[in-house]
Amino acid sequence: MKIIAPSVLSADFGDLRQDIEMLNRSEAEWIHVDVMDGTFVPNISFGFPIMEPLHKYATKPLDVHLMIVHPEKYVERFCDAGAWSVGFHLEAVDDPRPILQLIRNKGVRTCLTINPDIDVHRLDPYLAEVDMVLLMSVFAGFGGQKFIPETIDKLRYVKEQISARKLNTLIEIDGGVNIDNAHELFEAGADVLVAGSAVFKASDPEQAIRQMLH
Ligand code: DX5
Ligand code: ZN
Description:
Layout: E1 3-6, H1 16-25, E2 31-36, H2 48-57, E3 62-67, H3 75-80, E4 85-89, H4 97-105, E5 109-114, E6 132-136, H5 151-164, E7 170-174, H6 182-187, E8 192-195, H7 197-200, H8 205-213
Parallel strand pairs: 1-8, 2-3, 3-4, 4-5, 5-6, 6-7, 7-8
């Protein structure tokens, strides 16, 4: 699978509807929604109020990435707010399983995420239980950071695990993705690439999305 999921973290919030309409027209298949709480990560982005216009105007699935402590308190509300998938960080919780169940009970797809300093093997026990894993290729918290190249080896490892076990689990890569590294990431086994600045800071965002795909 080859999906580009532009992150609205880099959108123009003064004119969000225009950016959503650009994404609707574009070849991007998903829209990535970065929720930061200022505690799990040293930055605050946005929360439920932004889900409203996204749910109302976007014609594409909303891929919600929670960078928050206590995701168990909020996952159901994000499901109710129109999320198509809800992901949270493995390192933010003691036991992800009950939280994954809360999301599944809402009929929403699940995603487990790890930051670059978390051992990728910690995902192994959950690969068969989630719809997607998200490997951060920058430290969660800010858009516009540089891609961490070691992510490619982790991506290959997870892809091997998924193939060997004949699973359908998707792999998403998030952080520092751009036109220069997107093709290599898809070739290494990524299914979904999140791109914030590479899309919204481009002079022609729709063209940037096309170039990452083709
Ligand atoms: C970082 C977020 C990313 C971010 C990506 O904490 O999870 O989704 O918006 O932005 P770029 O593509 O600019 O690295
Ligand atoms: Zn993200």
